[in-house]
Design brief:
2 copies of one chain form a homodimer. Chain A is mostly helical. Helix content of chain A is 76%, strand content 0%. In chain A, helix 4 crosses helix 6, helix 5 packs antiparallel against helix 7 and helix 6 crosses helix 7. The first copy, chain A, binds a DNA duplex through helix 3.
Chain lengths: 198, 198
DNA sequence: CACGTTCCGATACGAGCGCATCGGTAGGCT
DNA sequence: AGCCTACCGATGCGCTCGTATCGGAACGTG
């Protein structure tokens, strides 16, 4: 067999290159040639990793979604009180916001894919799956918080979960448009989550 | 002078065609040729109305923004209690949501332009201008409501305005992704606005 | 009434796109 | 050690894009 390369690693690197291009110049900047250049591989390599451009974009979409989930996990682990439900809740939602440069890039990628999801049902299904995971996590956190008394018992979990997700998305849009700074958006989010505590 | 056509009317018709194409298949579907076909004019006519494609897209962006404002005005006029501040507030915010087919189309156009605004500062400025107008309107409504006792006096107007806009945007995203129906989004919005009443 | 000006719609062009194809090359098997 | 296979990176091909250009039709004017 000829020289072997790690296919999964290459796919991840390409997906990362796609995200960087979309985050900098939008979806239309993610041409196969530009992606190859950004990932420092040849055009042929990109074509062998992904049968078609659409397949590449879907993988990149799942890639950025995984990054958000991963960032939530990391923020929880690094937080001063990893065991506190309120902390976990806040850190999870913060991971969805554009609070730092990395998050800002992901937010731009997120809205690009979300806009595309509005007209391509297959992409919308991918996004809904991501949101389903986030919603489930929030439900678990809220329920655990109510059981150990950290979350007010009168909070209606399902509707509160939806409201928190809606708030995070709305704030992300506001930050991207420059109507909120990352700091002010974070403050709004924290005011909301602290309102849930006992 | 040769045969004269109404330039402004033609520009509006072209902008409408751009919105229909973007609402159906996304920003990339708005090529000059497709726009010309949708507007039932020649490619040359589109080029003479707009010096460049970007100029056309900016005009279309302002066009859909004007439609939202116009819809808010129409909803207020048609509402059962045009004089009630609470009604005006609710109808204004409803105009920002994708509550009917026309609104759904506009919402898809909105998110397409918003995504582009995240990477093109010039477009972001246009969007910010639109939001500034909406925010000013909401501030006026809330203040008037407080003065005549229809809105709770403890509502902090500036932050509430931002919160309402953020909520409307977040709900729009959720509807576009299929995580909210137009009806459920409207219900969330109404619950929020009725909470502001005395 | 014919001319000339002015604007319209069709065509032409270079560039860049996604995708398909094809020698070259680097290792595993006997 | 040498062959042979499997994969890599470069090149080619239609196609469509945005933009520039050009002949022709339509009206005010002398």
């Amino acid at each position: 067999m000829p020289r072997q390369v790690d296919h999964d690693d290459r796919r991840r690197r390409i997906a990362q290159a796609v995200c960087e291009l979309i985050g900098r110049d939008g979806l239309e900047a993610a041409t196969l040639r530009e992606v190859a250049a950004q990932a420092e591989v040849s055009l042929g390599a990109v074509q062998r990793c992904f049968r078609t451009k659409e397949e590449m974009l879907v993988f990149a979409q799942e890639h950025v979604n995984r990054r958000v989930t991963e960032r939530a996990r990391a923020r929880i682990a690094e937080s001063p009180e990893p065991g506190s439900v309120a902390t976990m809740l806040e850190q999870t939602l913060t991971a969805m916001l554009a609070v730092d440069d990395e998050g800002l890039l992901d937010a731009r990628v997120w809205i690009a894919f979300t806009a595309q999801s509005a007209v391509v049902p297959a992409l919308a299904a991918v996004q809904r799956g991501h949101y389903a995971g986030l919603a489930e996590l929030l439900v678990v956190l809220l329920r655990a918080g109510q059981e150990n008394g950290q979350i007010r018992p009168d909070v209606e979990i399902e509707s509160e979960t939806d409201a928190l997700i809606t708030l995070a998305d709305g704030l992300t849009v506001q930050v991207l448009l420059g109507r909120h700074t990352p700091e002010s958006a974070l403050a709004v989010l924290q005011r909301r989550t602290t309102g849930l505590r006992t």
